[in-house]
Amino acid sequence: MPKGLFVMDGSKRSTHGNAYFTGFGKAKRIVFYDTLLERLTVAEIEAVLAHELGHFKHRDILVSFARLALLSLAVFWWLGVAAKAPWLSAALGLPQSDAVGLVVAMICLSPLEVILAPLGNWLSNRAESRADQYAASMTGGGDALSSALLKLSRDNASTLTPDPLYVLFRYSHPPVPVRIERLRRAAGD
Ligand SMILES: [Zn+2]
């Protein structure tokens, strides 16, 4: 279980309300912004806490860290190989040198970001929905979490109706109405 529950002086930084789960092993912790504690009811705070515990239950932090580590390994492997490959610089009509090779290898990686961003967001959105369902099951339905999410999106001034394509490329969390709809569906109403 997480070792610590922390309150961060988020109000000194911005009016955004937030909470997050972080760390591994003995350093696991859940952090609440003080702004969030001020604005949410006790039931809503419990629901947000249960959502963060849902991430812990499903090992989301560990899995995303492992994914990032593997991706970094692949990127460094590619940079190592491609920077030394004479055909790559030659294909662009450039002289072969380690420096040129490295720049060209990095440029070749940018299309990969376009493919990986939606994939990463899809995985993250799935983890968020799972954590929402966990929170609903722990707090007797999704009502408290739904109202907490609405309050948070209001405080964060986030739009409730983002463009789906924009969501695919930019959103690591499903839009709030989608989360509330899923909670309702899971509760059967
Ligand atoms: Zn979450």
Strand content range: 5-15%
Order of helices and strands: EHEEHHHHHHHH
Low-confidence stretches at least 5 residues in length (pLDDT < 50)?
A: none
Return the domain count. 1
Q: How is the main sheet built?
A: 3 strands, mixed
**How many DSSP helices?**
9
Give the CA-based shape.
elongated
Helix and strand composition category:
mainly alpha
* Strand elements, count: 3
User: Helix coverage percent of residues?
Assistant: 55-70%
Radius of gyration, Cα only, in angstroms? Answer: 21 Å
Overall average residue pLDDT = 84
In this entry the ligands are: zinc ion
Q: Distance N terminus to C terminus?
A: 32 Å
Largest beta sheet: what is the strand line-up?
1-3-2
Model description:
The protein is mainly alpha-helical and 189 residues long. The chain has one domain (4-187). The protein has nine helices and three strands. A three-stranded mixed sheet has the order 1-3-2. β2 and β3 (29-33) form a beta hairpin. α4 (60-83) runs antiparallel to α6 (98-138) and α6 (98-138) packs across α9 (176-187). The chain is elongated. The two termini are 32 Å apart. The model has no long low-confidence stretch (mean pLDDT 84). Zinc ion binds at residues 51, 55, 128, 131.
Summarize the structure.
This protein is mainly alpha-helical. The chain is built from nine helices and three strands; from the N terminus they run βαββαααααααα.
